[in-house]
Amino acid sequence: MKTSALQQARAAYQPKLPKALQGAVKVQEGAPTQSVDNQEEIKALFPNTYGMPLVEFVPGETENAKQMNVGIILSGGQAPGGHNVISGLFDQVKKLNPNNKLYGFLMGPGGLVDHDYVEITEELLKDYRNTGGFDLIGSGRTKLEKEEQFEKGLEIIRQLNINAIVIIGGDDSNTNACVLAEYYAAKNYGVQVIGCPKTIDGDLKNSQIETSFGFDTATKTYSEVIGNIERDCNSARKYWHFIKLMGRSASHIALECALQTQPNICLISEEIEAKDQTLNDIIENIAEVVAYRASQGNNFGVVLIPEGLVEFIPAIGRLIQELNDLLAAHGADYADLDKDAQRAYILAHLTEENRATFETLPEGVSRQLSLDRDPHGNVQVSLIETEKLISDMVGAKLARWKKEGKYNGKFSALHHFFGYEGRCAAPSNFDADYCYALGTSAALLIASGKTGYMAIVKNTTARTDEWKAGGVPITMMMNMERRNGEMKPVIRKALVELDGKPFKAFVAQRDQWAKETCYVYPGPIQYWGPAEVCDQPTKTLELEQEK
Ligand code: FBP
Question: Where does the entry annotate site (Important for catalytic activity) (predicted)?
Fold first, then answer.
């Protein structure tokens, strides 16, 4: 593979490991755990993997030399650092016993079911260490949930003499990892399943998981570009930039980027939902800021919009819920209809309130909400052009205000969507180290016989050598939620907490950012140099972990 000079220099980077993982380890077990909610239901659904203790690795006397083969799967959206989870796992598995083998299943969970795999060797891995992307083995969104998939997977597991599968994924994929762990445990197949917290969205976190990997690099990458736009904006002083940011449901990415770059406006979906705001309220608030800035001679600004916004506007959220159930119940007959017939079908089946909301939406948006969900039942929010919808509506409102003599500025809007630009960026030192430690922990969890656990690394705002590593039972993070019209056990998604420190820090400053021009230009991620430039975690993590 042809590699750039930066890639070559990065390949030589040795990720820093917590002290506890540097040598031989022993397992320290905590008290039994409980699920975050619906304990009885979750316990009944996961009788073999419920209630297990938290695990921490501490320095020990003996190295575990158990012979084991491991399979690894990358699941869902790309996140910077995935290759380092594989590197950490590979190095630790080989350290435990050089005869151990690591197999990568290709293109996501589907690779296990379809028996597509590659053996990961040092020769193959060496060009991927500390690089972004998932291209070493590819990723996919096949949902592992059916017994025949588990049994099909078992065939290749047996053929390759695999003892454990590591699934690197977000909340949905780790939920599936837990279901698979439970299934193999119930059948006494002797196959362990370990999860690993991945997603740039930052919504897989809780009392045990401080952050999901990739969030650090992705938000730093977006913040660099937002900063560049702010600087351009402040130089030309003639455009309003509407920037949609990835992140599916939660607004963690938008909030973190706002804390890093101080834009004029940043919408936080969770706040909009809590305040029961309508689309019109949102438009009015933005238009007021535009009008105020225009009155000061500032016909420019930057607005950050979280990708999942529409789902959180309560009336639209209710509509989406009903559409989800409707589409789940009428899959095949609906899919065969043409565009107009699908619209007519939906209008005929919606309740009155939701029909009214559906009819008020611009056609492009209502159409997008009527399309197929992803395999986990999610609306594909990354395809909805919210940034255009909002700026068009703000433009229309300002034009009305102009006619009424309430506003006399210029409004020229530009649109951006930052998502794919950050998902495969070369991992920051934080993500490179964090992921390597997660991979190492996953190997140690396997070596200590655990299944149904997610690898974790904590104390991540301290120096790397003080980080703590271990595992959390996945059932501990679960509750029951409605999915595709049915109640299902799932890992609880972490949304932005309105009484949390990151949101409060934003609220304390946002009025000033709206009126004045307070932009901050973070610049590109740095890999070599002073720790305060190269090794800083996100502001979200710093504020959340602040003692
Ligand atoms: P994961 O939850 O799988 O990590 O995916 C994250 C994400 O990047 C979301 O932010 C985004 O909405 C989605 O993937 C887009 O996925 P795709 O590129 O498959 O449409």
Answer: 198
User: What is the mean predicted confidence (pLDDT) over 161-170?
Assistant: 97
pTM beyond cutoff 0.90: yes
Which residues lie across from 480 on neighbouring strands? 489
d(CA 472, CA 452): 9
Q: Which residue has the higher pLDDT, 380 or 319?
A: 319
Above pLDDT 70, what percent of the chain?
98
- 459 pLDDT above the threshold of 90: yes
**Rounded distance between C-alpha atoms, residue 25 and residue 471, angstroms:** 14
The 3-state DSSP class for residue 211 equals coil
DSSP character at residue 127: T
Nearest C-alpha to atom 7 of ligand 1 is from which residue?
77
Report whether residue 140 contacts ligand 1, using a CB cutoff of 6 Å. Answer: no
Q: Is the CB of 109 within 6 Å of ligand 1?
A: no
DSSP label at residue 496: P
Q: Residue 236 Cα, ligand 1 centroid: separation in angstroms?
A: 34
| Probe residue for ligand 1, chosen from 141, 199, 374, 493 as the CB with the greatest number of ligand atoms within 8 Å | 199
Rounded to 5 degrees, what are φ and ψ at 108? 90, -170
Instruction: State the pLDDT at residue 61.
Output: 73
Cβ of 381 less than 6 Å from ligand 1: yes
Give me ligand 1 centre to Cα 76, in Å.
7
- Residue 177 near residue 167 (C-beta atoms within 8 A): yes
Q: Which of the four pLDDT bands, split at 50, 70 and 90, describes residue 62?
A: low
CA gap 118, 86 in Å, rounded: 13
Cβ atoms of residues 203 and 171 within 8 Å: yes
Q: How confident is the model over 322-364, as pLDDT tens digits?
A: 888 888 777 667 778 888 888 888 899 899 999 998 888 877 7
421 labeled part of a ligand binding site: yes
- pLDDT, one tens digit per residue, over 74-91 is 999 999 999 999 999 999
Query: Strand (E) positions, 360-510?
Result: 413-418, 453-458, 468-473, 478-483, 486-491
Known catalytic residue: 201?
A: yes
Structural contact between residues 330 and 322, judged by C-beta atoms closer than 8 angstroms:
no
- Ligand 1 pocket, 77 CB below 6 A? yes
91, 201, 203, 433: the active-site residue: 201
Q: How far is the CA of 215 from the centre of ligand 1 (A)?
A: 12
